[in-house]
Amino acid sequence: MSDLSKLVKAYDVRGIVPDQFDESVARALGTAFIEMLRESGDNADEIVIAHDMRESGPGLAAAFARGANAAGAAVLNVGLASTDGLYYASGALGLPGAMFTASHNPAQYNGIKLCRAGAKPVGQDSGLAVVRQRAEALLDDLNAEADGPARVETRDLLADYAQHLRSLVDLTAIRPLKVIVDAGNGMGGYTVPAVLGDQVLPALPLEIVPLYFELDGSFPNHEANPLDPANLVDLQNAIREQGADIGVAFDGDADRCFIIDENGDPVSPSAVTALVARRELAKFPGSTVIHNLITSAAVPEIIKEAGGTPVRSRVGHSFIKAEMARTNAVFGGEHSAHYYFRDFWFADTGMLAAMHVLAALGGQERPLSEFAAEYERYSASGEINSTVADAAAKVAEVRAAFAGATFDELDGLTVSLPDGAWFNLRASNTEPLLRLNVEAAKPDRMASLRDEVLAIVRS
User: Fold this and answer.
1) Interatomic CA distance for residues 248 and 132, integer angstroms
2) What is the bridge-based pairing of β-strands 246-250 and 177-182?
3) Residue 415 in 3-state DSSP?
4) Bridge partners for 434 per DSSP
5) What is the pLDDT of residues 220-247, one digit of tens each?
6) If DSSP codes are grouped into helix, strand and coil, which group holds residue 64?
7) pLDDT tier, 96 (very low <50, low <70, confident <90, very high otherwise)
8) Domain spans, the chain
9) What are the percentages of helix, strand and coil residues in the chain, rounded to 5?
10) Dihedral in degrees, nearest 10, Cα atoms 311, 314, 320, 321
11) Do the beta carbons of residue 214 and residue 224 sit within 8 Å?
């Protein structure tokens, strides 16, 4: 019996090629995706697919297309794309989509992010479990559908994607900026020249200095995971050496962006969330903005100051997107540097967030460090992972130690203390880990609270 439980995760498909994920599995998933869409009442006559720069991408995408054809669907293959490029195609064309990527995972991985028409996410509870079960049955059935007639059209949508993003953020009148971009050999090397450079559209007042723009799914320079500080070192050094105004780092599929100031210091994703929220609220006064519960307390403060309504969400794109749809929120941000936009079909796009930061920086004269300081009001620990045998027991122990505090269990345990300091402790869904985030008004208070909680967690 086929078992795809280790490959099909809560929000996407991700595994090692070819051990867990090969072309026969991709073909079965293609058929299963079309059948799931039809069973749930969606139009599945045509889908759009794309892949990132991983070597296994074209073969897996082609196999998936054969599976979709076998189920009677036509396929539009847009070829190389960032994940937000696929979301653009799904939104602009009104088609369900499949993006072949393993994001920031190492070279031996690949996967699929699936969406319904309009870039609506497909997760475990919204069709992915059905896709998995149907694909398992197809793999076990020797008489499964034969390949249908090949109905695959290829089209390049890069220029359309770039034009759409430029229509949302105007960078033509900003002061000139020197921008170093680290693409990590990922899809940013493909999209940045089109959106921010002069490859397909008129030049902007930006001097783009490329770092690792060569598409290479073996990641020869560093992992395409900017959440790991080790992967930012080359960019930070280049900014200092070359006197750049700003640095931008993208992950492998370029749906997340990380911002570095002129001194080589990271600007926290919470500060970026607050900055973009303020800009979107200036355009759409009184709107709702979603933030996950790990973002800084400064985020809801700034949203309220800008006349918006902050709404807290659990961590994770499926929760953020569901809240955005429910509230018609204009924007949403996470501590992990995922940024979601109503005018981008509620989907996440690192490029659009980067453009907002460039527009804000270039619309005034101060350096980024000084400008971003408005949004960095508190001292945060960042996410700290601890391996534990019994996560629930440790969380209970921590709760007992802070008996006088205020508790919130929207996602894990959030503990708020009388002096305004707070921390969140939540278990990983996939590993024996507890994740701790701490914030306080001053660095020494944050450090003492962090150490107090870790002493209990790691005892």
Assistant:
1) 36
2) parallel
3) strand
4) 386, 427
5) 999 999 999 999 999 999 999 999 999 9
6) helix
7) very high
8) 13-156, 158-377, 379-457
9) 40, 20, 40
10) -120
11) no
Q: What percent of the chain has pLDDT over 90?
A: 94
Q: Range with the lowest mean pLDDT among 130-144, 188-202, 329-343, 414-428?
A: 130-144
Query: What pLDDT score does 146 carry?
Result: 76
CATH number of 379-457: 3.30.310.50
Give the per-residue pLDDT at 149: 86
Ramachandran region, residue 146 (left: φ > 0; alpha: ψ -120 to 50; beta: rest): beta
Q: Is 158-377's fold the same as 379-457's? A: no
Which two tokens mark 189? 């090397």
**In the annotation, is 103 catalytic?**
yes
Fold entry, domain 13-156: Alpha-D-Glucose-1,6-Bisphosphate; Chain A, domain 3 (3.40.120)
Sequence-distant (6+) residues with CB within 8 A of 99 are 49, 50, 51, 52, 81, 83, 86, 87, 112, 113, 114, 115, 253
Smallest CA-to-CA distance from 453 within 427, 415, 406, 419 is with 415
pTM > 0.90: yes or no: yes
Contact 50, 79 (CB under 8 A): yes
- Sign of the torsion formed by the C-alpha atoms of 161, 165, 168 and 174: negative
Question: Of 56, 82, 90, 103, which one is the catalytic site residue?
Answer: 103
Helix 23-39 vs helix 57-70: angle between axes, to the nearest 10 degrees?
A: 40
